[in-house]
Design goal:
The strands form 2 sheets. A 6-stranded parallel beta sheet has the order 2-3-4-5-6-7. It has a two-stranded parallel ribbon with strand order 1-8. The protein is of the alpha/beta class. Helices cover 38% and strands 15% of the residues.
């Protein structure tokens, strides 16, 4: 199947734009990876992404991973859970997902650890921290981060690799960048306290240059790669349909 020109062109363009943002921030482009966010897009388009060199794909819903994984079993895809995760979904996550970027509470850590032990697997996790005041955003309160990281040491199947956040939905770059700066500063304090947190997952299609300027090591890009989605963002964040988040 030929690769649609829009996907190849979009992938090339976003890689160029990320590289430019790195250079503008005085950073080596090799320091920042791109996580393609494939939510709402079907196996055919994801397979074409694989042909372009994509191997990790971010999804917001466990159900979508469960539906897509069998059709793409031959592609060697590493599925990354980036959406809010309920503890009762831990069984499917432990079986199908290579990484969770939205770990934000101990009951979820306990559920994941229990199911991962049953599966005989270990996965990478990022702690999602709430750096904005928006009620539609999930994440651990910043003041709880140190204690949470200490507690996660008791779950051997969860390799804590860093932090993740969603910035405020705002047209003010100062506000948006402030969320990213907050995450970096929280990470730096945690490192001083003995935690190894090399990764910062922050920044999406509309704000990734600001995230890169504040130290992002990974940006989560959906629309700029795959195009506009068949479902509105309110399909994923029904709590606040007037407050979309563009991945």
């Amino acid at each position: 199947m030929p690769i649609p020109s829009h996907l190849a062109a979009n992938w090339s363009d976003i890689r160029r734009r990320v590289d430019e943002a790195c250079r503008a921030a005085g950073r080596d482009p090799a320091e920042v990876s791109i996580l393609p966010v494939s939510k709402t897009f079907g196996p055919e388009l994801i397979r074409e992404g694989v042909a372009l060199g994509m191997r990790r794909f971010g999804e917001n819903k466990v159900q979508e991973i469960r539906d897509k994984a069998p059709a793409l079993a031959d592609c060697g895809i590493a599925w990354v859970m980036i959406g809010h995760l309920q503890s009762n979904k831990a069984k499917d996550v432990a079986r199908l997902v290579s990484e969770v970027q939205s770990l934000d509470r101990l009951d979820l850590a306990e559920a994941l650890d229990r199911r991962l032990q049953h599966e005989g697997r270990v996965i990478d996790v990022l702690v999602q921290v709430k750096t904005s005041t928006e009620p539609s955003k999930y994440g651990l309160p910043p003041e709880q981060l140190t204690g949470f990281l200490d507690a996660l040491r008791g779950y051997p199947t969860l390799r804590v690799r860093g932090l993740m956040t969603l910035a405020i939905h705002s047209t003010d770059p100062v506000e948006v960048r402030g969320c990213f700066r907050r995450l970096r500063e929280l990470r730096d304090r945690a490192v001083v306290q003995g935690h190894d947190l090399p990764r910062l997952s922050m920044g999406m299609s509309g704000d990734f240059p600001l995230a890169i300027a504040e130290g992002a090591t990974e940006v989560r890009i959906g629309t700029a790669i795959f195009g506009h989605r068949p479902y509105p963002d309110s399909h994923y964040w029904p709590e606040s349909s007037s407050n979309p988040q563009t991945l």
